[in-house]
Write a structure and sequence with these properties.
single chain; alpha/beta; Rossmann fold; six-stranded parallel β-sheet; five-stranded parallel β-sheet; 11 strands
């Protein structure tokens, strides 16, 4: 498959990059926010704005949308006149379905000459109105979760190279941002590193990867092995975590990804102040120590030498002063380096990780 136009693909500094399957998403993008009500549900849009803002031309919000990702509000016609080439669904919902209320906007976009990009579980081509609009306009329906490769089951075989996996006590807590920041920190330190995307937004940002939760469960570990193959001894794959071992709905994807990733290092992603598991609020978040303990226990199945090397704190809901206090408290609690990957980067964690493994 072709690469994302004008985006940066994974680095060429690995031995042989077998994870070379890329997706075509014509740029620039108009981000569709629909009727989104909470920030966590707009993580795709926020991720693209944070890491690929130069490719985002504006946002399209319905009248009852409560989320703003910081782009100009534009109509489909305005976006096309500004040069937009794709309408990207920037939100998610429980079950990953296409709302009936959205379809007319998507048909309008296809009629206006935009391709339609989705990371939802429901396939765009399964919706007759979209399939017909794409056909008559010669536009593409791009499902990021669609996968044409057949994966084997996991082998547990020890692979060369190093791997770090971001994990956490909940979903939508910062695992993708942390992995992207760690990759950048390692490269800034002169270390060979590649971000390995495992979710729809990560794939959109990186231009390659696997939406791991779209893989049949028996083959998740094998897909993660394929995503992070043998490499140079000093090369790091920085693998985007998914779900949480503590989430009653999504723990399964976390286990498969962890065992296939075979991480040498774990980075815990944590949001100070969050009390309950997202979308199942009768479940309380575990303590940081309990989170570390369970993730370490599970990771040791395929790498008994795994170590936890730091905590990435999502302090987006705290003031700068509150964030400093929270980060110091976390470091005192767990005895590991802690930082906010957006506010300050992850150089501190990257340096500590390299000290351990040099």
């Amino acid at each position: 498959m072709a690469k994302i136009e004008k985006t940066t693909s994974a680095s060429k500094n690995s031995v042989e990059d077998q994870t070379n399957e890329q997706v075509l998403m014509p740029v620039p993008y108009l981000l569709f926010l629909g009727d989104c009500q909470i920030e966590e549900a707009a993580k795709t849009a926020f991720g693209l704005v944070q890491w690929r803002r130069e490719l985002c031309i504006g946002q399209l919000r319905l009248s009852d949308c409560k989320i703003d990702v910081g782009l100009s509000d534009v109509t489909i016609q305005q976006a096309t006149s500004m040069g937009a080439k794709s309408l990207v669904i920037g939100v998610v919902n429980a079950g990953g379905f296409i709302s009936d209320e959205w379809v007319s906007y998507f048909v309008e976009a296809l009629d206006a000459g935009l391709d339609l990009v989705s990371g939802m579980h429901q396939s765009l081509s399964d919706i007759p109105a979209l399939k017909e609009a794409a056909r008559r306009n010669g536009q593409k329906l791009i499902d990021i979760r669609s996968n044409t490769r057949n994966f084997e089951t996991g082998t547990g075989r020890k692979r060369s190279g190093k791997r770090v996996l971001t994990v956490g006590p909940d979903c939508a807590i910062g695992k993708k941002y942390s992995a992207l920041s760690i990759e950048q920190s390692l490269r800034d330190l002169g270390v060979k590193a590649d971000f390995r995307a495992t979710g729809q937004t990560g794939v959109m940002i990186a231009g390659r990867g696997i939406a791991i939760d779209a893989i049949v469960s028996d083959f998740m570990a094998g897909a993660a092995e394929w995503l992070s193959p043998d490499n140079d001894p000093d090369h790091w794959d920085v693998i985007e975590g998914q779900g949480s071992l503590f989430h009653p709905a999504y723990a399964g994807v976390s286990v498969g990804l962890m065992h296939g990733s075979q991480p040498d290092a774990l980075v815990i992603c944590h949001q100070p102040g969050r009390k309950n598991i997202i979308s199942v609020e009768n479940y309380e978040l575990p303590s940081l120590r309990d989170c570390i303990e369970l993730n370490m226990a599970m990771a040791k199945l395929t790498n008994p030498a795994v170590k936890t090397v730091g905590v990435c704190a999502n302090t987006s809901k705290l003031s700068a002063q509150e964030a400093e206090v929270a980060i110091r408290a976390i470091e005192d609690e767990v005895g590991l380096p802690c930082c906010d990957p957006v506010r300050e980067g992850t150089e501190k964690i990257a340096k500590y990780m390299l000290e351990i493994y040099n």
